[in-house]
Design a protein that fits this description.
Blueprint (H helix, E strand, L loop, with lengths): L1 H4 L1 H10 L2 H4 L6 E7 L1 E7 L2 E6 L11 E4 L7 E11 L5 E7 L8 E6 L2 E9 L17 H16 L3 H7 L1 H11 L4 H13 L1 E2 L7 E5 L4 E5 L7 E4 L7 E3 L2 E5 L2 E4 L2
Antiparallel strand pairs: 1-4, 1-6, 2-3, 2-5, 5-8, 6-7, 9-12, 10-11, 11-14, 12-13, 14-15
C-alpha cells in the first residue's frame, strides 16, 4: 500500500522540515531505539506503531513513528511503552518536531516501563477518522470488511483495494502531497507481486474515540492483513485501522 511504499517520503515531508515551513499538518516524530526490548508507541491511547522483533523500523535504525495523522486539537499524550525482550532491555526515546530543531523530549526506559510526553496543538487537519461515524455495532460487521479486503488482495483486485483505502489516500495526500505517477505504478506492482498471509481466525476489534476509529488486530498484535515483498525484510501490515463513512467501511491506516 501507499502507506508502506511511501514511508520514507512521509518522513521527509513530516519530519525533515518544520510543518509550518512546508504548510503541512503539524507533526511530532517519535524515534525509538530498542535494545533487547519490545513495545508500542501510543497517541492518546491508540497504539500507532510497534517495535522490537519483526514489528517495525529499518535494520540498525530503530523505529521512526510520525504522529501527525493521529493528533487532535488541544492536549495530546504521546507514550512509549516497553517490556523486556532479551537479557539487557533498554529503550531510548527521542521526540522531534523537526531535525532542524533540538529534541523536545528524551527518555531512557530500562526494563519494563513507559515514557510520556504531552503536546498541545491548536489546529489539526480533518483526518478521515475525525469525521467518521460513531460506530457502536456488532464487530462482525467490520470483520466482514476485513475479509473482503483480504479477498481483494488475494485476487489482485486493484480497483477494490484502491476503493477501500480511499480515505487513507486522502489523508496521505494532505500529509505528503498527491502521489506521483511513479508511486502509483509502485502501488500497482506491490498489489500484484506481494505474497499474502492467510487471514487467520484470531482477529480482535477495539474501538477508539467513541467508535469513530476501529482497530483490528491479530492475536499477536499485528495488523490483520500481512504482505511480504520479494527481497524486502519483514512484512507490510495492512488495514489495522478502519472507519465507517457514508455507510461504507474504509481503511485509514
Amino acid at each position: 500500500m501507499r502507506a508502506t511504499l511511501s514511508f520514507l517520503k512521509l518522513l521527509l515531508c513530516l519530519f525533515a522540515v518544520s510543518a509550518q515551513a512546508q504548510d503541512r499538518p503539524v507533526n511530532f516524530t517519535v524515534n525509538v531505539d530498542p535494545e533487547d526490548s519490545a513495545g508500542h508507541v501510543l497517541v492518546n491511547g491508540v497504539p500507532i506503531k510497534s517495535f522490537g522483533g519483526d514489528s517495525g523500523g529499518f535494520p540498525g535504525m530503530g523505529l521512526a513513528a510520525p504522529t501527525g495523522m493521529w493528533l487532535v486539537e488541544g492536549e495530546n499524550s504521546i507514550v512509549v511503552e516497553a517490556k523486556p525482550a532479551g537479557a539487557r532491555p533498554v529503550t531510548r526515546v527521542v521526540i522531534l518536531r523537526s531535525i532542524m530543531e533540538p529534541p523536545i523530549f528524551e527518555a531512557v526506559i530500562e526494563g519494563a516501563g513507559r515514557a510520556e510526553h504531552k503536546v498541545t496543538v491548536d489546529k489539526v487537519h480533518r483526518w478521515a477518522w475525525l469525521d467518521a461515524e460513531k460506530w457502536q455495532g456488532d464487530k462482525t460487521e467490520v470483520l466482514a470488511a476485513v475479509r473482503q479486503l483480504h479477498a481483494a488482495y488475494a485476487a489482485k483486485d486493484q480497483a477494490r483495494v484502491i476503493a477501500t483505502r480511499a480515505a487513507l489516500d486522502a489523508d496521505f495526500d494532505a500529509a505528503m502531497g498527491p502521489a506521483t505517477a511513479d508511486e502509483l505504478d509502485q502501488e500497482k506492482k506491490f498489489i500484484e507481486t506481494a505474497a499474502l498471509d492467510p487471514l487467520g481466525d484470531d482477529l480482535s476489534v477495539t474501538s477508539y474515540y467513541d467508535g469513530r476509529l476501529i482497530a483490528v488486530s491479530r492475536g499477536d498484535g499485528t495488523a490483520p492483513i500481512l504482505l511480504a515483498t520479494p527481497n524486502v525484510p519483514g512484512k507490510s501490515e495492512i488495514a489495522r485501522f478502519w472507519v465507517k463513512k457514508n455507510g461504507k467501511w474504509l481503511v485509514v491506516r
